[in-house]
Specification:
Blueprint: E1 2-6, H1 15-23, E2 26-30, H2 36-42, E3 48-51, H3 58-62, E4 69-72, H4 82-88, E5 91-93, H5 100-116, H6 118-128, E6 146-150, H7 154-165, E7 169-173, E8 186-188, H8 191-197, E9 200-203, H9 217-222, E10 228-231, H10 240-249, E11 254-257, E12 277-279, H11 288-306
Parallel strand pairs: 1-2, 1-3, 3-4, 4-5, 6-7, 6-9, 7-8, 9-10, 10-11, 11-12
Length: about 325
């Protein structure tokens, strides 16, 4: 029987993927923790790896001589050494379109919660009573405001659709998308112009060396002093020390963060101290429907490759023709 190493997962159980794997004659091996040492030891005799947030460096892959496929539970693959996979003949797959609605909804929920002061006013009423809320906070009519979107991939486009339903003007920046390829009603522009002219800015770029710290002190200074910055993509897209400074000095109005630079931030993280910052623990992807879809599709990609078939998605196409799976 073939084996697949499941490095980590955040949902209640792995029943959905286990059913698919076992039907195909594949035994799941669940790591008790996601340390490199543990993963390296368990990878020694597996035929596949399914990974979520765990780091899978070259040292783990090099100790997996039978591994034919690394299948990501999710979209981003920045926690996997793709170059090592390609060198070793391991096919890398992901599920690039499983939680588009959930993340786009989450972004709009953060924008709406901040703009309408939902979290703040609910907390005040519960702690101090109905009459404790004074109408001194700034709230905008969204129909008159601008949403800036950095990244016009699937999620960025879904956010644009939702923002336009609210009557917002939508500006976007993506170095790979021309105006002719932009969705209807979206104006492509430079990132500087987008930051200067937007009331809400949401990030939907992949995490690569060029985008790491793409929002830092210089970019934050360009934003309106009442603008709201949203990140439901990858934490390191934002320079957190610069964000803390911008919030402290009133350079921007607030932030909505589903991700932070550290995937396991400390309980005294400085961003927790700001009332104008909404933080969720990387849950934008989640719904029961999206998670079941993610589990099943990730497992099916493993089954395809181990059967010598082409997966739906190949992240490293240069590996084709020299894969361990013979595809």
């Amino acid at each position: 029987m073939s084996k697949v190493l499941i490095t980590d997962y955040t949902w209640p159980n792995i029943d959905a993927e286990t059913a698919i794997l076992k039907t195909a004659g594949i035994e799941p091996v669940v790591a008790p923790d996601s340390s490199v040492e543990t993963l390296t030891r368990l990878a020694a005799d597996v035929d596949a790896i399914m990974f979520c947030f765990a780091q899978v460096p070259a040292s783990v892959l090099q100790n997996a001589p039978n591994c034919k496929v690394a299948s990501r539970y999710g979209i981003g693959v920045d926690n996997l050494d793709i170059a090592a996979c390609t060198e070793l003949g391991i096919v890398v797959t992901n599920i690039p379109d499983y939680c588009i609605d959930e993340v786009a909804d989450h972004v709009m929920a953060m924008a709406l919660s901040f703009n309408r002061k939902i979290v703040k006013h609910s907390s005040m009423v519960k702690s101090s009573g109905w009459g404790s809320v004074s109408l001194t906070d700034t709230m905008h009519r969204l129909r008159d405001k601008t949403m800036g979107i950095a990244g016009m991939g699937r999620i960025g486009r879904a956010v644009a659709d939702r923002a336009r339903v609210f009557g917002m003007t939508v500006l976007a920046h993506d170095p790979f998308v021309d105006q002719s390829d932009a969705p209807e009603g979206v104006q492509m522009t430079s990132i500087d112009s987008m930051l200067k002219d937007s009331d809400f800015v949401t990030l939907h770029a992949p995490l690569i060396p060029k985008t790491t710290g793409m929002i830092s002190a210089d970019e934050l200074r360009l934003m309106k002093n009442d603008a709201f910055l949203i990140n439901a993509a990858r934490g390191p897209l934002i320079d957190e020390s610069a964000l803390v400074e911008a919030l402290s000095s009133g350079e921007i109005g607030g932030a909505g963060l589903d991700v932070l630079e550290d995937t396991a931030p400390s309980d005294d993280h400085p961003l927790y101290a700001f009332d104008n910052v909404i933080i969720t623990p990387h849950t934008a992807f989640f719904s029961q429907a999206s998670t079941i879809e993610l589990e099943e599709r990730t497992a099916r990609e493993v089954v395809r490759v181990l059967n010598g078939e082409m997966p739906d998605v190949v992240i490293n196409p240069e590996v084709l023709g020299k894969t361990r799976a013979g595809i």
